[in-house]
TrEMBL record, chain A:
Name under which the protein is recorded: Copper resistance protein CopB
Chain spans, region Disordered: 23-90
Keywords attached to this entry: Signal
InterPro entries listed in its UniProt record: Autotransporte_beta_dom_sf, Cu-R_B_prcur
Record's compositionally biased regions (Basic and acidic residues): 36-52
Signal peptide: 1-19
GO molecular function: copper ion binding
Single biological process term from Gene Ontology: intracellular copper ion homeostasis
Automatic annotation (TrEMBL), chain B:
Annotated InterPro entries: Cu-oxidase-like_N (IPR011707), Cu-oxidase_2nd (IPR001117), Cu-oxidase_C (IPR011706), Cu-oxidase_fam (IPR045087), Cu-R_CopA (IPR006376), Cu_oxidase_CS (IPR033138), Cu_oxidase_Cu_BS (IPR002355), Cupredoxin (IPR008972)
Signal peptide span: none
SUPFAM superfamilies: Cupredoxins
Name by which UniProt lists this protein: Copper-binding protein
PROSITE patterns the UniProt entry points to: MULTICOPPER_OXIDASE1, MULTICOPPER_OXIDASE2, TAT
Amino acid sequence: MKTLAAAAMLALAPLPAMAQDHQHMDHGAMPPADPHAGHEAAGEDHSTHQQHDAAATPAPDPHAAHARPMPGAAIPQGTAPPPPADHAADAFYDPAAMARARDLMRRENGGMTFSRWMLDRLEYRTVRGADGYHWEGEGWIGGDINRLAVKTEGEGDLGGPLESAEIQALFSRAIGPWFNLEAGVRHDIRPRPQRSYAVIGIDGLAPYFFEVSAQAFLSDMGDAHLRLEGSYDQRITQRLILQPAAEANIAAQDVPELGIGSGLSDIELGLRLRYELAREFAPYVGVNWERKLGGTARLARAAGEDASVTSFVAGLRFWF
Amino acid sequence: MTEPLDHDITRRGLLMGAAGLAGLAGAGGAFPAWARSGTPGLAPSAGVLSGEAIALTVGESHFSTGGRSAHAVTVNGTLPAPLIRLKEGQNVRIAVTNRLKEDTSIHWHGLIVPFQMDGVPGVSFPGIRPGETFTYDFPVRQSGTYWYHSHSGMQEAIGHYGPIVIDPAAPDPVQATREHVIVLSDWSPIHPHMLLRRLKQNGGYFNMQRQTLAGLLAGRDQGIRERLQWGAMRMDPTDISDVTGSTYSFLVNGHGTAENWTGLFTPGERVRLRIINASAMTNFNVRLPGLPMTVVQCDGQDVQPVETDEFQIGIAETYDVVVQPPEAQAYALIAEAIDRSGQVRATLAPRIGMAAQEPPLRARPLLGMKDMGMDMTGMDHGDMAGHAMKMRDPSVAPQVAMGPGVATLSPMPADRTAARPTGLEHESHRVLTYADLKALTPNKDQRQPSRTLDIHLTANMERYMWSFDGVKLSDGTAPIAFRHMERVRVNLINDTMMPHPIHLHGHFFELVTGAGAHNPRKHTVNVLPGGKVSFDLTADALGDWAFHCHMLLHMHSGMMRVVTVRHEGEGA
């Protein structure tokens, strides 16, 4: 018992100045100042201490009677003493053990790492023609301010090939109470040709509790895109939640090999009704409408696809 | 009013039996004698730890209540921990042995001890390593009701807490023929680290009383216009408690409502209840329907007796009340979570086997403008949206480090010490406020404070960030320094919409309530949402001390500081 031994040793040995004072100082239960309470208990001579204390305590204010706190009386701002550089407990315990405990205390009180991994949408889509699937998820790990974030989404036809799949790895930093700035890379595994993009974006909670995000992408081929997303959770009951969501994609140029025309290339509106069996586990049903526009729509039609697709969806939202 | 409860006793017996089996792995579901249901009270005091040498062992246990069970950390195998009963003027040596696989500690909440005996790892001592024994050794210089708990990790949330009663050296000004200790707590089978993780992931995770569309259509809660105004500010008027009855069981002496903790009395006698809120995250409204309470002590400090029907007890506060049950019937003791997500009923009865009727939970309150720190006196109430922009005006708090952790600043925080606390504003019966508390004896240091210190209680509830002045403990903060024996007016300004029970170790301070020399002395003060509290502090205890919000998860999110008291000129 190293600490015990240290404490015992210090209790016997001449103490550092502060520890000394501590024994003489006022610890009266009824605060301030019965400086004698402890001494009396210890059977010491009261009268000598009274003199001692009269000298030791700050000189009484001659105007004390007038200086009583009065309602509304102004108290000076004053100046705080400079904080000491040392740690009081180091005088009583092994400083190395104290340093370890201090580190742990700092980390435990505000410095912990957390994470959340969420598949916001994992859904089956019934469409005229071929039914399909779609996923959208995001996760983060880190502290309150700086986080590593990942985002992914993709879709395909049931029994068909994977149509699109992207993954983003981002550094996310809180830049205010409500918004995070994020920067990183995005890689599209599908469609081919595979593309990589630099990403910069903003993500957060707008007034009226709208979840919003905006991301700008610049590909390794030099093409630039913008994606805007928003959603809102309308609680119908404590567990039944209706979520309207919208997404718009804008391209700075034509990218014919990816079927994208410049300008507003597509918009997507969704309405999902989920039931939170637990906050982190919610099945849902809904409807999703996608519309390709402008050059993108022309390219789709030329490829024999519909420019507009409405699907009924059923899926699961979960996170941990 | 009463009904026989034989089936409950049987059930209790079964639980105890099951606990006995579980006890092979640890002392499961064990209660110290004073906390057992049907206790005659503190005297005779079987199972109470007294004397100059006390031994405590911190270990792993299992705890069950209301049909749920989970891992617990207990002292001497019981939840709550044993009652320590001391006498003012004695010395005590308390040897604490750690049988856990992690560090532990005990902080003596409200006890005036040398700082190196205060039990906060990293501030007052290094903590107690697994397998080690640490002996606390200090003189007992006060009397009253206090408590003790771990200051390591989150052990306090899973059972590591117990009561302390110190008898005064002089005759007790409180006359009672019987007394019971009432330890209130919250308990979840979900580990507190997971509770915090969930809140970091989703700040409203445990709130199952939010405003809904169904409520709007049924005409409940706010109207559409007000909802839009609050929405514009991204504020939720139902965000009253972080962790709620959706996961918590609320306990009296380790007993849930079904287990019906019962304290005995004889009709007509004066019964002293020493009520301690040992919760991790729950402020309670306490009442005994049909039985007025006379508050005689708060935070271990005698107060002028004041009669009331209900009071709100912040986490870590203690209130001693005297009740005089006139009839040979069962009386309910109700501790209701302030967000009304749950409550616990215990019984005061003339004999075991009675259960008082449990009143239904009252409607969940809604926060209002005052909880945003907007004192609307003399202002146009209709134009709230216009104020939305002023909810984060840095000029009202220049000292606050503005960043993601500060979502709001109270533009006009009001002193709410004379105001009824959250949710009790419109009760028809008497409700205690801090202004009703007056110290029994005048405070000894009546000097005018020589300086002022403002401390802002800051948060971003959406990100679940909590701090003082916008800075978390983990940000590498310097200690808050005081000169030895200086007298300082400390203003706590709550910039959040949640009450914060703020605790300063090693000291009592006097709440500035207008009672002058009789301002109440406290170790923990619950600062109401959007409000401010002033206290006068005589920095009479040299050393380093912890200063923090006693909402355990707020503290663990960073709402903590080290306070240091040094001789003038000792600073670097």
